[in-house]
Amino acid sequence: MLGAMAGDVDRERVAKYAVARRGSLGLTQEQLAERAGVTVKTVYNLESGERWPQARTRSAVEDALRWHPGDLARIGEGLEPQDGRDHVAPELAELNAYFAELRTDPGDKRRMALAFFRALYGEPDGR
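== HTH cro/C1-type domain-containing protein ==
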C-alpha cells in the first residue's frame, strides 16, 4: 500500500536508504534540508528513524534526493525505489566516456576540446 502511514513503514530501513542516498549525492544534512526546503531537524528525524514525515515533506525530500514520488513509502514497505538509476546517470556516463577518449587522443579532438574549455573558463592560473 503506497499511502503508508507512520505505523505501516519500516522507518529504520527508510533511514538507512536516505542516509546512503544523501551520501552518494555528496550532501550534508544541511544541504539536503536546504534543497528540500525543510529544517535540518526534519532531515535528522527521517535519517534517525524517529519520525515519519508528512506527505508534502516526503515529496520534497524525495525530489531533493532525486527519487521518484512515493519512493520513501516504497522503501518503507520493503521495496526498492521505483527507478534505481540516478536521473543524470546516462549523461554522466556519456561525458565520462568522452573524457576518457580525450585523455588518450593526442590529436585534433583533444586540442579542440581544450580550446573550447579555455574559451569557456579561461586559462587556469599558473599556466
